[in-house]
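Something for you to look into today, if you have time. I want to see for myself how the chain folds. Leave the record below and I will have a look.
***
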Amino acid sequence: MRILFTVILLFFGNFITAQEMELMNKFEFYEHTLDTTTIPYRLFTPENKEDAKLPLVIALHGAGERGSNNQLQIEFHRLGTVWVDSVNQKEHPCFVVAPQCPENQKWVDIDWGSEKYDFHNTPISNELATVSNLVDSLISQYPIDKNRIYVTGLSMGGFASWYLLMNNLNRFAAAIIFSGSGDPEMACDIKNIPIWNFHGDLDKAVPVNGSRNMIKAISDCGEDILLISDPNNKSFSDSEFKINRVLSSTHLYTEYKGKGHVIWKESYNNRLVREWMFSKTLK
C-alpha cells in the first residue's frame, strides 16, 4: 500500500506548474498542537476577510502527502489550490486550511483495504482530533461563517472526511469525498449533511464498495441519491436543467467507470462540483 502511494507521489511530482506554485505561495505556514500532538498546516486567508464572515474549506490529503515539510499536502491533485485560484476567490471568497498528517500516522486508524468500519469502536486519532481542535481555533481567530464550513478529502483524507461528519453531526455545511469509506450504521445520523461522493470502479487501493456501502445506507435512510456517471461530460455544462438538478440535490454519487484510485484533479477542476458545495449552508 505504501509503495503504491509513493509511486503516485513521484509521478505527480514532475508536473507542478508555475501557476500551481503561485497558488501554493498564497498559503501561510503554521503548526497546531493539541496535548502531545503537533501537526503542520497551511492556511489561505482571503483578501476581503474583513468585509464579512466567509466560508472555511478543510482540505485533507492522502497517505502519499504525509510528512513534516508542510508543503506536500497542497502540491498535488488540486486539493488545496483550486479554492484559492483568483477565479474561485472572486466568485466564492473563502478561507482554506490544509493540515499535514505526520509520517507513518493516519487520519483514521483503520485498514485502508476495509470496505467499512465500526465508528463507535474506532476512537478519533490524535491527528484528526488535532485537526478538529485547529478548526475551533481558526473560528475563534478569523471571521469564519460557522454555517459554511466545508470538508473535502481524498483517499486517506476521504476516510477522514467521513469520520469528521460522523463525529461532528452539526458542523459541516457540505462534504466532497473521494476514494474512502465510513460506517454505514451511521448513515441515518449524517443523512442531512450534503455529500458528493466519488470513487473509481477499478480502485485497487481502497475498495469501491466502501463508497457503495455508504451511499446505499444513506439511500436506505430515505434520502434521494442523484447518480452522476461523469460530471465532466459536456452534456452537463450545456444543460441548464441538469445544472439546476445538481445544485438542488443533497446527495450525489459519482462512480467513474474504468478509472482507478486517482480521480481527484479532474473532479476538483470541475466548476459544477465547486458550485454545488458553495451552494450549501448549514441548516
Observations:
- The longest helix spans residues 126-141.
- The domain at 2-278 is CATH 3.40.50.1820 (Rossmann fold).
